[in-house]
Structures are given as C-alpha cells and as structure tokens.
Design goal:
- The complex is a heterodimer of chains A (about 350) and B (about 270).
- Chain A is elongated and about 80 Å long.
- Chain A is of the alpha+beta class and about 350 residues long.
- Chain A has nine helices and 20 strands.
- Chain B contains 14 helices and no strands.
- In chain B, helix 2 packs across helix 14 and helix 9 packs across helix 11.
- In chain B, about 80% of the residues lie in helices and about 0% in strands.
- The longest helix of chain B is centred in the N-terminal third of the chain and has 34 residues.
- The chains are: A alpha+beta (about 350), B mainly alpha (about 270).
- At the A-B interface, strand 6 and helix 2 of A face helix 10 and helix 11 of B.
Amino acid sequence: MSIEVVNIAKTFHTFRALRGVSLKIEAGELVALLGPSGSGKTTLLRIIAGLEQPDEGSGPILFDGEEMGHRAVGERQVGFVFQHYALFRHMTVFENVAFGLRVRPRKTRPTDAEVAEKVHALLRLVHLDSLFDRYPSQLSGGQRQRVALARSLAVEPKVLLLDEPFGALDAKVRQELRRWLRRLHDDIGVTSVFVTHDQEEALEVADRIVVMNEGTIEQVGTPDEVFHRPATEFVMKFLGNVNLFHGRVGGGKVQFAGVSADVPEGSVEDGAPLLSARVFVRPHELDLSLTPAGRGSFPAKVTRIHSAGPVVRLELEAETGEQVFAHIDHLRFQALGLSEGSRVFLLPRDLKLFTEDFSV
Amino acid sequence: MKSRLQRRSVLPGFGLTMGFTLMYLSLIVLIPLSGLVLKSATMTWPAFWSTITEDRVLASLRLSFGGALIAATVNAVFGFVVAWVLVRYRFPGRRLVDALIDLPFALPTAVSGIALTAVYAPTGWLGRPLAALGIQAAYTPLGVVIAMTFVGLPFVVRTLQPALEDLDVEIEEAAASLGAGRFQAFVRVLLPALLPSLLTGFALAFSRAVGEYGSVIFIAGTTKTEIAPLVIVTKLEQYDYAGATAVALVMLVASFGLLFGINLLQRWSRRQHA
C-alpha cells in the first residue's frame, strides 16, 4: 500500500516538530526516516500511524489514495513497533502475538485453533517458536524486538511502521537484526517505514532515505543518492564524517586551503560572481603522498594516527591551520611510512561545495 | 537452603541487619501477640469455644470481616478511579484533591467517627436525604461500612498512584494499534499490569478496616451493630480478660489467614509480571 502525506505540520506547545512536510512512499518500499533527535522523524511516523494528530490546516494522510486522517490507529491497518517494544509483560510470547487476533470483534475473531496456527507461523517467521511460553522478562533485547515485530504482523498490516527498531540493542545484535529485517521485508513485501538516527543503518537497510532536520525534509533519495549527491550541507554532514574548508569560488575554480581546484559540475552556476563557499571533503576521498601531486594538493602535518581498525585514520593539520581527517588503507599507510609529525600532501579526489548565498 | 543463606551480597552486614530485624519484630510484634495467645490459653477448650461461638461474638466478627471486605472492595473500585483521575488528568485544584486523600490518615479516628455520625445521622446533611429515601445510614451496618470505607481510601489511592505513573503510555498505544478498543485495552492490558498494586491497596485497606475502632464505634452505636473490637473492649471493661483475648485471637488468626491469602494472590500476579 502506498502512503502519501501532504503538508503535515505538528506543534507541541511552542515547539514546531514538523513544519509542513510532504512525502510519498510507494507500495512495497522500505523507507528510512533519518535525522538527529528533534528532527521530527518520530512525530511524522506517529502521525502516519494515527498515534498523533497533525495540526489544523495540515494536508491529508493517504493510504493508496484513501484519506486516513480521521481514522483511529486501530482502523488504519498499520503495524507499529515501538522503540522500547511495549510488550505486555503479564502475557507470554504467544499471548502477546495473539493479542491482535483476540481483540477482534466477535464476528471476525478467529477460533483458538486458527489463532494458535497463525501465532506459531509468525513465531517461526521470527525464529522464536521454541520460546512461545516465555514471558517478555525472560527474553533478550533482540528477542523482545522480534516478538514485537511478530505481534505487529499478526494483524496483517498494510503498512509496517518501526520507531528506532534497533535503538536499544547492542552493536552486534543490531547489525544482525537489521540484515534480518531487510530479508524479512523482501519476503513479505509489506510497505515499511522505519525511524533511525543511525546513518549507517539507514544506508544499509533502506530502499530510500528521507533525511530530516528541524521539522523539514532535507532530501529524499536512494542511499547512493543521499550519500554521493547530498542536496544540502546538512545531508553532507549528517551522512558520515566530513572535512570542512572555507573558500572562495568563481570562474569555474574553487580556492581553499591554499589550493585551487576545478568546481564540480552543476554545483555553481556559470558566470556567477566570486562567492565565498564551504567546501566538504570526506576523509576517504583524500589521497596522501609525500611529494606535491599537482595544483590540487596541499601540504599538511600528521598529528595523530589510529591504525587499529579496517582503515588507518589520520588526524592532520593543514598549513593554513584547518584540522583534517583522512582515512587510507593499511597498504598505502605502510608504503608511505608515516609517523606522527610527518609532512604529507593531500589531494582531494572529490569535493562538494555549497555557496553561502544558498539560503535555507 | 544453606547455599541460599550463604549467597554473597555486595552489601555488608547481612548478619547484623538480619539479627536486628528478628529482634525488632519479636519485640514489637511477636512477643505482644504471643502474650495474647498465652492469655487465652488460660481458658479451657470448651470455655474458649463457647466464648467465640456466642451469638453476639459471631455477629460482631461477621460484621467486622464482612464490612471490611465490602469496604475494601468499594475502595478498590473507587480508589482506582480517584488514582486514575489524579495521575492521568491535569485540572485546576488537582494538588488540593491529592492532599485531601491523606486526610483519613491524619485525622484522629474519634474525630472522623463523630464527623461521620453527625453527617449521616437522620438529621445530618446526608442522613436527611437518605432517610427520605428510606435508608438509614448511621447506627446500622451500612454506617459501619461507610466508616470503614472512609479510613481505607488513602491506602488504595496511594498504592495505585506510583504504579499508574510507571505505566508506559506505549503499552496502551500498542494495544490500540493492534485494534483493541478502550475497554479491551483496559481489561486486557492495564488492569493486569496494575493488579499487584491494586491487591496491595486492597489488603491494606482491608486490614485497616478490620482493625478500625475509633471512627466506627460512634456510627455503629447499638448492640446490633457491634464490631469485634468493640466486643473485645466491652469484655475488657467487664474484667473478662480471657474472653477478650479469645475473641482477639480469632481476629488475629482470621486476619492473618486472609492477608496470607491475599499475599499469595499477589505473588501469583506479580510472578506473571516480573
């Protein structure tokens, strides 16, 4: 089922959580709402679910083109997975999952045998069938999360909404669970939206990412698009580490850190006057060499080396004073024979620039 | 058993604090109560039996325990509503209402007894309209139940409030998102989560009502509406110490049995909850 929200605003007392957000989610998609805390992503999810009412004057909330705004959460056929699972503690795993079936109106309520069959099928789906008679307090965090998911799927939702589904889990379980969620989504194909503040999680799991900041949508795109072609400075900064330089742009060239480079296509209009610009380079897009490598490279001094990890992370200081981070692989690191205090030249392979007059 | 006692704790002083606890409990609770048992043991078995099966004694015990059970049940229902309103809604004067709840705790029981009697007497503010309806409250078992309800209310409200505040809103939202109506969510999700606290409040209100003397005797009045504590006092005034302790012993055993039963219920509901 496709979801469309139009011009949704939400104010809590004086805090404007959402400032007129519009978004369309296609049927069968797995979409991530990504943003820092306070960006409005959870509020948007809760409004889609019907757990929160948008402000007066907001546009409609459409599921497959049908207006849902006036329907209560229980009538929208959504499955909602809460950040802290919200399992019923006095019920077994089985009863938790069966809850949505048992509260149906008498006419459509399945028989006990049907309930049992369905619940066990769902528990097999989330690999918890052997734990059906346990209480939530006897389960690990990851298991509880899967029970919560099975419970929300029991009502055969047309839309699955997950609020920070892996937020409360430790790093390893989290990685396993998000891969598992991706596979599950591919199997059952229900339109799914999940909220996260973890860019890595969004990039790995989602078909499309909605990057939110201060109650507005900054960019909507595939993981590749938002990572490689960020629409705004905020998206650039939020999706991974960046080095920031202040520079000037004009005549097809950008000057920063004492170097001059070609302006990437499309980032500044031709013939624009000289503008001050903010230049972003990701740490893994910096090449290191011991000798100057053409006009684009600039000198820097290595101040710190972190070599434990898949890449070597270097902290450097440019001669113009900026602190710079660079990630290079171990082979390259050994070939260069770097130590703290070494002088190197940095060559940006790629850069993004945003001119100051791009007012937001 | 041995290994359970020896299990190490990071907190020091198990021996000392346990010893103190046992001594304190003995001094404050066990020794006076065993005095009670010993005193009634001076009676012969037939004398004991005839004392406690006397019509007047049985009636008073029935009124005390029956009234207390009714009062505690009434408090469990309406105390729940009061606690719910105080926790869930914000309204002007909420703090004032919240403070009012504690008044039955703080008032000397004789004062509340006289106040209740004055209000519920056939000429009182509430007694007059009730009398017009043909209901007499003061000097009847109904009056006893009213007084017992009055003194028990704070126990239910005060034990439920923290439990209600701890209740995660997400639980209700989860129930709603799964299609449960307000009533289903309440019965299937909220009530079971609150049951242990509700039982605690019920048990406390019940014990208070069984033991209540001051506020009940004024509104009870005649011999037909005697409560067991009043029978005990009457026997004491007639220098029938053994008879008094015999009735007291029955109250003790019955109270203990009932409280123990409620405790078991609580354990059962809490275990599901853990």
